[in-house]
Amino acid sequence: MQGRELTISTFSWYFPYISMKYLDGTENKLIMELSKRLNFTYSFILNKVWGTFEPNGTGEGIHRDLLIGVSDIGLGGIFIVYNYYQYFDFTMPYLLNGITMLVPRPKPLALWLSITAPFNKYIWILVVGSVLIGSLSLYICANLIINQRDKSSENHEYTNFMYCLLTVIGQLTQAPANRWPLETSLRHLLTWQFIFFALVMTGYKSSLIHYLKARRYEKTIDNGEDFTNVPDLYWTAVDESWPKLLSSFTDPSLQKIYSRYKRYSNIEDINKSLHQGNLAIAVENLATGGYSGADYIDKDFIASSMWLMSCDLTNTMVAMELQKGLPYIEHFNAIIRRLIEAGIIRQWEVLSWLYTDLWRKKLDKITMTKFGWNKHIASEPPISMQASHFLGVFSLLCFGLSLSFIVFLIELRFPFRT
């Protein structure tokens, strides 16, 4: 290239790609290698954002500089977006990263819900349905039998539906019937119901002690589907290029996530929404295991109140963005290909993290929101039972006693039998 000078639009700091202060970063090293091999010099134009642009040249950031011809190359972890090919050229990708999110950490569930935890809602529906069907079956069978006999038969209690219902509920709680009927058919019905409820309650009681002692949390948000299932949860990003990338996909789930994007004018508004628990932050999942893109958020708050998705929303390819028609793209690709095959670019990214202690500490705080919190919960030592563990049990007792008292008052006011 005979010493030609190229102008590069980039950031002053977007680690691990660019660091002007230390002249470090994966793409800093890449451009130095290209300059040495192809014999060109370069100068930088510093930007704060990747930016947005219009075909007429209006906009801001790195993309605009390339579009209007102010710069020749754009660097800074730029994603290859299909829609951009009509305006820019891209080198071959040299890094494959993912996009994930820091989402609000799951909140603890109310302690009184612990007594319902051993069964999910579908099993509870089956249990309640079994009680009602069992009570109705007992009531119908008893009436069919008793109506053929003397009304003064000793089995007359079972012709009352409330008595049948209380009997079946007693069987559910492993309490035997007060009076067993003489008829064989009714005894068979009660016996098989008792066996069924005994097996159900054995499974319930074996799991109950765990849920009484363990702290339970809401369902974690680990993928895009979980994110869209949470109402009033929005997300934001460091730059408008992130939502533009998602908008370029036709996947319906990514389109739903894109519709939840919320733009903020300043960091203070972002932090306010984060503290309210209705905002997620898009971050970049790097191939070397690090995360980047949320350095403008207080890391102490992230470590204490946010959770990292276990699944990426999508994968992205990082490349150099070039002014349309720049004649050196094939020369760039030839060198980049050799660097990739030798594993040098991947090693640059690893070394960039290792030699930057400040960012390594920030990285630790982010990654610990996923791994450290789970480890902390799993490693809690056994604890003795406390009164708070029985909050659900006492709540159920209070509900039962209150319901019984209300029935007692109703019977005093409206006696049903003399």
From TrEMBL:
<dbReference type="InterPro" id="IPR052192">
    <property type="entry name" value="Insect_Ionotropic_Sensory_Rcpt"/>
</dbReference>
<protein>
    <recommendedName>
        <fullName>Ionotropic glutamate receptor C-terminal domain-containing protein</fullName>
    </recommendedName>
</protein>
<keyword id="KW-0675">Receptor</keyword>
<keyword id="KW-1133">Transmembrane helix</keyword>
<dbReference type="GO" id="GO:0050906">
    <property type="term" value="P:detection of stimulus involved in sensory perception"/>
</dbReference>
<feature type="transmembrane region" description="Helical">
    <location>
        <begin position="66"/>
        <end position="85"/>
    </location>
</feature>
<keyword id="KW-0813">Transport</keyword>
<feature type="transmembrane region" description="Helical">
    <location>
        <begin position="158"/>
        <end position="177"/>
    </location>
</feature>
<keyword id="KW-1071">Ligand-gated ion channel</keyword>
<feature type="domain" description="Ionotropic glutamate receptor C-terminal">
    <location>
        <begin position="122"/>
        <end position="401"/>
    </location>
</feature>
<feature type="transmembrane region" description="Helical">
    <location>
        <begin position="122"/>
        <end position="146"/>
    </location>
</feature>
<feature type="transmembrane region" description="Helical">
    <location>
        <begin position="390"/>
        <end position="410"/>
    </location>
</feature>
<dbReference type="Pfam" id="PF00060">
    <property type="entry name" value="Lig_chan"/>
</dbReference>
<dbReference type="GO" id="GO:0005886">
    <property type="term" value="C:plasma membrane"/>
</dbReference>
<keyword id="KW-0407">Ion channel</keyword>
<dbReference type="InterPro" id="IPR001320">
    <property type="entry name" value="Iontro_rcpt_C"/>
</dbReference>
<dbReference type="GO" id="GO:0015276">
    <property type="term" value="F:ligand-gated monoatomic ion channel activity"/>
</dbReference>
<keyword id="KW-0472">Membrane</keyword>
<keyword id="KW-0406">Ion transport</keyword>
<keyword id="KW-0325">Glycoprotein</keyword>
<feature type="domain" description="Ionotropic glutamate receptor L-glutamate and glycine-binding">
    <location>
        <begin position="23"/>
        <end position="106"/>
    </location>
</feature>
<dbReference type="InterPro" id="IPR019594">
    <property type="entry name" value="Glu/Gly-bd"/>
</dbReference>
<keyword id="KW-0812">Transmembrane</keyword>
<keyword id="KW-1003">Cell membrane</keyword>
<comment type="similarity">
    <text>Belongs to the glutamate-gated ion channel (TC 1.A.10.1) family.</text>
</comment>
<feature type="transmembrane region" description="Helical">
    <location>
        <begin position="189"/>
        <end position="212"/>
    </location>
</feature>
<dbReference type="Pfam" id="PF10613">
    <property type="entry name" value="Lig_chan-Glu_bd"/>
</dbReference>
